[in-house]
Design a protein that fits this description.
Number of strands: 0
Shape: rod-shaped
Number of domains: 1
Oligomer: single chain
Order of helices and strands: HH
Helix content: over 70%
Strand content: under 5%
Length: 64
């Protein structure tokens, strides 16, 4: 796991925590903020995964 992966996972966990606190306190704004944080983290991670896949494909082509 590299630095960006760890950062994205931490952001996702922070979002889950916000959502849970919002659930417990009936704070819809905090729930929404938590879900938004999670979605952003997942989107960032998907971008990182895509970059990694492209790099792996480039490496495979160069080795051929």
């Amino acid at each position: 796991m590299d630095t960006n992966d760890a950062r994205n996972k931490a952001e996702e966990l922070k979002g889950k925590a916000k959502e849970k606190v919002g659930d417990w306190t009936d704070n819809e704004s905090l729930q929404a903020e938590g879900m938004s944080d999670q979605a952003k983290a997942k989107a960032k991670q998907a971008g990182e995964d895509l970059k990694d896949a492209a790099a792996d494909a480039g490496d495979a082509i160069r080795k051929s």
